[in-house]
Amino acid sequence: xIAIDTHTSIPTLQKLLEDNNxxxxxxxxxxxxxxxxxxxxxxxxxxxxxxxxxxKQSRPFVQKYQQIEAPLNRIEVEYKFYKAIxxxxxxxxxxxxxxxxxxxxxxxxxxxGQCEDMTFCYRDRSIAQEILEKLINIAAAIHKVGPLxxxxxxxxxxxxxxxxxxxxxxxxxxxxxxNDVQEGLQELSLPYKRDNTIKAVVNKLGDMYLSKGNxxxxxxxxxxxxxxxxxxxxxIDPEFGFIGFREFDLGVMTAHLILATMDPxxxxxxxxxxxxDANAGLVSQVAGVEIIRRLIGxxxxxxxxxxxxxxxxxxxxxxxxxx
Length: 323
What we know:
single chain, alpha+beta, Phosphorylase Kinase, domain 1, Aminoglycoside 3'-phosphotransferase, Chain: A, domain 2, 13 helices, 10 strands
């Protein structure tokens, strides 16, 4: 495997791409840069004398938390997710795949331009109604893709994600230094780590997450995977995708709408806009777990909230889990 990053020499990368037949005649790489902060993978923007494109490579660890091992084949799951989608209502909202090199765990994709991920909604505490409608319609269309009997189980990555969503945030001694995130957060977290009533529900949801479902899901449907350019939106980073249950995507989405806006009615809005059958109680439970894990788990968000606001969010999450 040839590992690439912003320090890779241009001649080395030029040869790799030429060997893959990924460059046009007389096309030369002129610059490499980071298009944004990647959590799971190395992501580069390659500029040439003819165009720009994105290169994405998985490593045997999580790029942002390199002490955490992660399966290399997640890049193949992402490739197969994109290739499974033919519906124009979705393809216009995802990057085109230009090349896939399984030997080097490398994906070449369309450059969507100067998009920014939608994590700004945590700062703005709002999301435009028309953007929300587009995001829900895209999710609904993804859930209708199929049949996909040969889609990867993605079990190694699911097991890793399962630990960080359903297990570690609810352990008292999990190694997370929450007071380093915000003073007082560790003490605030303890009642939820000691609450056997919610942990029983969380365990059942975790088992469901690891079971085979019946629809293709994105698996990480939150603002970091949503890109916005003016009034258009794009969906990226489906490496957590698998055949699961639609309520997982909807629950994660609902959780982040609540985290951003502090509006509990976000659940009702999502259920009203989603045009297919979904279990509102299950969506609520997944959302509650996601809120808790984002507040007291390892995968922290760029979320500036007072301790009092986080306490309110945790109390709401508990109610949503016990719906």
